[in-house]
Amino acid sequence: MKIVKSYSDPYLADQDLFALHQLEMAASSFERDLGTPLAGPVSLIEKDGSLFFGVDKEKQKEVDFSELMTKVKQSMGLSPDSSILQVVGDSTLFSPIGTQKGLQFLQEELFKGDYLVLRGYTGHGDSAKGLADVNELVNHWMEQDPSHAKRVLANVVIPHTLQAIEWGCTTSSCCKNFFIVHNSACFGDDIAASDGLTQKALCLEGGVQSFAQVVNFLSNGTSIKGIHGLRHNHHLTTGAPLERPFFSAMEFLHGIQDIWVNTHDERAIFNYTSDYLATRDLFDPLRPEAATKPALFELAWNTFWDQRLFERLDLLDVAGV
User: Fold this and answer.
1) Under a CB-based contact definition with an 8 Å cutoff, are residues 137 and 129 in contact?
2) What residues pair up with 224 in beta bridges, in sequence order?
3) Which letter does DSSP use for residue 246 in this model?
4) Domain boundary at 202, 232, 247, which?
5) Does 149 lie in the same domain as 63?
6) Are residues 104 and 77 in the same domain?
7) Residue 297 and residue 281: Cα distance in Å, rounded?
8) 8 A C-beta contact, residue 172 and residue 139
9) How far apart are CA 150 and CA 174, in angstroms?
10) What stretches of 76-201 show up as alpha helix (H) in DSSP?
């Protein structure tokens, strides 16, 4: 599996410098209203064979997503009948077996339709150990056949994506189409736009942010296919065995789905949730974005319960591996 660079590299690779320059220039142009209006607050810039769609973080709720879907597909040269499929999941490395099973899952699903594939731009990978996270698996799928790239749209948040590239996250030179959320946007600030565009979804394991996105998908009536059981049983930062597993969106929802299908017992779902969270760590406290997770989970869980989204879990096709 190709890795663009490792964390030990003392410099950025040429393709990363080019990507940084392209994304910085596009974001600067959007913030100066220099893009071509496309759909509501979303603008388009075409440059050097790449497409850049851009929207201000604060204007995502103004987007008419039906119109935007049509315009994005048209701009990318895809059939108006193509479905937009978003790939979400872990941003930490899967186990060696989990990496293999995750890639197999992606390959099988992405070849099933003429999809426009929506994905995060930056990933993590370790080619020497055969490890990857969800976005690096999409990179690998594209690099096996670069013709796939014409139907891939990469989510970008400015400035956090630029910082991630500088920190050593993996990217792919195959990516030519970008959806940029700008105006001091952080990871997670783009989910209103990306989830609004999504017509189908794949989720590989998934932490708190993926759970929040799956809640959005269920609320929007979007079908999801997912898997869990892809992770390590030790801490990737320290190498120590995990005292408790981390929260898995797909494992958690798989349990709720089983309860609802078999019993339709809301109290059983509530008890299961309490027991599950008591035996899982909601997030990795060593990750830089850890402080955002409790509030994000609380908001997503309240939405899930208040909208009775457990009644829509027929939209979820999930399995453990």
Assistant:
1) no
2) 201, 316
3) B
4) 202
5) yes
6) yes
7) 12
8) yes
9) 9
10) 96-110, 134-144, 160-167, 191-197
Q: Which amino acid is at 309?
A: L
109 and 244, same domain (yes or no)? no
Same domain, 267 and 172: no
Neighbours of 79 (CB within 10 A): 11
Residue 24 sits in the same domain as residue 160:
yes
Report the distance separating Cα 29 and Cα 34, nearest Å: 5
Cα–Cα distance, 107 to 194 (Å, whole number): 21
Taking only the tens place, the pLDDT of each residue in 28-63 is 999 999 999 999 999 999 998 999 999 999 999 999
Range of the domain at 243: 205-321
- Structure-token pair, residue 112: 């099933």
Residue that terminates a domain, selected from 174, 202, 230: 202
Which distant-in-sequence residues (6+ apart) come within 8 Å of 285 by Cβ?
none
Is the previous residue joined to 159 through a cis bond, with omega within 30 degrees of 0?
Answer: yes
Write the pLDDT tens digit of every residue in 98-139.
999 999 999 999 988 889 999 999 999 988 888 999 999 999
Q: What is the pTM of this model?
A: 0.92
8-17, 163-172, 196-205: least confidently modelled range: 8-17
Going from the C-alpha of 211 to that of each of 47, 281, 283, the distances in angstroms are 35, 14, 12
Do residues 27 and 182 touch, judged by C-beta distance below 8 A? yes
**Angle at which helices 96-110 and 134-144 pack, to 10 degrees?**
60
CA nearest 251: which of 211, 291, 292?
211
* Number of independent structural domains in the chain: 2
CB 188 within 8 A of CB 286: no
- The closest alpha carbon to 98, from 240, 262, 297, 236, belongs to 236
